[in-house]
Design goal:
Pyridoxal 5'-phosphate (PLP)-binding protein, which is involved in PLP homeostasis. With about 240 residues, the protein is α/β, with parallel strands linked by helices. The protein has helices spanning about 5-35, 50-60, 70-80, 100-105, 115-125, 155-165, 180-200, 215-220, 230, and strands at about 40-45, 65-70, 85-90, 110, 130-140, 165-175, 205, 225. The radius of gyration is 18 Å and the shape is globular. The structure holds pyridoxal-5'-phosphate (PLP).
Length: about 240
């Protein structure tokens, strides 16, 4: 490795370390404010649009959970990082034709939002002899257009996941809707999660909160926050 490459790697490592320290501090503060134990909340580093070398640096810095939202990008990145002790979370909208690939590296899929997807993931997990964790994604604005199931459909979908071979039900996931105070939306999510947990006591994961709203999510019971920008920097605008 040349000196300049070495140096830029060190600079990038420092940048990420600073982001990580700040995010961990915010999570800690949110836990204290909510009277929760710090170890009730797990940070998932969302590495979309950032290279495998950043995943490697995050791992060096102690991160063990990473998230990706597009299979085309995630599959090669996960392959490049195969030697690392990481848990991979798939957090993006998922089409059934991508399920085979996603199941090959994802340990947990956060975006299960329809019965057909449960069926396909279960079958593929069986073929690949894997156990895949599934979270039911909730459309907190009751509009499934951007991904997520309507709140009214969530209990039944959770039952389906719990009953499907090769899958385990982790719990629920949501993204705060646009144009509503996140805390209000996360309060609804927390109620729905409690209802699901009554039927499935081991489904304790609540995946909510991103760079801008992780505090509100932790205040409302999030166990997993998914953070990209605050760790790695602002992503370039996505151009189709
Ligand atoms: C990109 C993304 C995140 C991280 O968002 P930031 O605002 O960059 O922290 C979290 N969850 C999902 C589903 C995402 O697509």
């Amino acid at each position: 490795m040349s000196v300049s490459t070495d140096e830029s790697r060190r600079t990038r490592r420092d940048e990420i370390a600073a982001g990580l320290a700040e995010v961990r501090e915010r999570i800690g503060a949110a836990c204290r404010a909510a009277g929760r134990d710090r170890d009730e909340v797990t940070l998932i580093a969302v590495t979309k649009t950032y290279p495998a070398s950043d995943v490697r640096l995050l791992c060096e810095l102690g991160v063990r959970e990473v998230g990706e939202n597009r299979d085309q990008e995630a599959a090669p990145k996960a392959r490049e990082c195969q030697d690392l002790p990481l848990t991979w979370h798939f957090v993006g909208q998922l089409q059934t034709n991508k399920v085979r690939s996603v199941v090959s590296y994802a340990d947990v899929i956060h975006s299960v939002d329809r019965a057909r997807l449960v069926e396909v993931i279960s079958r593929e997990a069986g073929k690949q002899e894997r156990q895949v964790g599934c979270l039911v994604q909730v459309a907190l604005d009751d509009d499934p257009a951007r991904g997520g199931a309507r709140p009214a459909d969530v209990p039944e979908l959770a039952d389906l996941v719990a009953a499907a071979p090769h899958l385990w039900l982790g719990g629920l996931m949501a993204v705060a809707p646009l144009g509503e105070e996140p805390g209000k939306a996360f309060a609804r999510l927390r109620e729905l999660a409690a209802a699901v947990r009554e039927r499935h006591p081991r489904a304790t994961m609540l995946s909510a909160g991103m760079s801008d709203d992780l505090g509100a999510a932790v205040a409302h019971g999030a166990t997993h926050v998914r953070v990209g920008t605050a760790l790695l920097g602002r992503r370039k605008p996505f151009v189709r």
